[in-house]
Specification:
Elements (H helix, E strand, L loop, with lengths): L1 H14 L5 H32 L4 H6 L12
Helix pairs in contact: 1-2
């Protein structure tokens, strides 16, 4: 909800020309773009990654228990 209000609050600076929007248009575009990307990442990518890790496949990939130590030949 707060992301939506922030994006909608900055959108007039990005879309509509005016006396005040010339200075802040670049900053507003960066904020709106960053918030849209972070919202998509939070709502889509993060649950997908957590779903992949439900069975522990990702944790097994990074925490291998069968580590082999290579010893120099004697």
């Amino acid at each position: 909800m707060s992301t939506l209000t922030s994006i909608m609050g900055m959108l007039p600076l990005v879309l509509f020309p005016g006396a005040g929007s010339d200075i802040y248009r670049g900053m507003a575009t960066t904020i709106v773009g960053g918030m849209c990307v972070s919202t998509i990442f939070t709502l889509v990518m993060l649950p997908a990654l957590l779903r992949l890790d439900e069975d522990g496949s990702l944790s097994r990939l990074f925490n291998r228990k069968n580590k082999q130590v290579l010893h120099p030949a004697e």
